Amino acid sequence: MEVTAKLKYAKVGTQKARLVADVVRGQDVNTAIKNLTFMKKKSALLIKKLIESAVANAENKNVIDVDNLFVKKITVDQGPSAKRFRPRAQGRAFQIKKKMSHINVVLDER
Fold first, then answer.
1. What is the CA radius of gyration of the chain?
2. CA-to-CA distance for 97 and 108, rounded, in angstroms?
3. Beta strand 69-78 with 101-109: parallel, antiparallel or unpaired?
4. What is the Cα 109 distance to its own chain's centre?
5. Which pLDDT band holds residue 90 (cuts at 50, 70, 90)?
6. Can you list the domains of the chain with their CATH numbers?
7. Can you tell me whether residue 80 is helix, strand or coil?
C-alpha cells in the first residue's frame, strides 16, 4: 500500500531539487534520511522533512510496517515563479524570477 506526501510552493529551483531527489529515489527510508541529513543543499532539508511526513502518514494509517518502507517515487515539478524587479542603469528595470517547486513523495512497502 502506497503512502504519499506533497510539498507545494517550495522556494527552491526545480533543477536543484531534482539533483537531491535523484539521490534518494529507490532507497530505504532510513538510508534516505541518513543521506539527506549530511547533504549541504537547501532542498535536502525540505525532502528529508517530506519523507518524514510520509512516514508519519504511514504510522497513522496503521496498515503498513514502517520498517519496510522505501522511496518508490519522488517527483519535482515546476511551480509558479514570483516576479520581482531590480533597478538597472539609465532608469531601466530588470526582471528576476524567483522559482518554486512542487515535490511529491510516494513510499511503498518492500
1. 17
2. 36
3. antiparallel
4. 20
5. very high
6. 3-109 (3.90.470.10)
7. coil
- In total, the chain counts a number of residues equal to 110
Number of neighbours of residue 57 by Cβ within 10 angstroms: 15
Q: How far is CA 65 from CA 48, 50, 52, 108, in A?
A: 19, 18, 15, 10
Closest by Cα among 2, 40, 3 to 19: 40
pLDDT tens for each residue of 16-50:
999 999 999 999 999 999 999 999 999 999 999 99
Query: How much helix, strand and coil, in percent to the nearest 5, is found in the chain?
Result: 40, 35, 20
DSSP state of 56: H
**What does residue 89 show for φ and ψ, rounded to 5 degrees?**
-65, 150
* Cα–Cα nearest to 85, from 100, 95, 76: 95
Q: Which three cell numbers stand for residue 15?
A: 533543477
The predicted-structure confidence for 50-88, as pLDDT tens digits, reads as follows 999 999 999 888 878 888 899 999 999 999 999 999 999
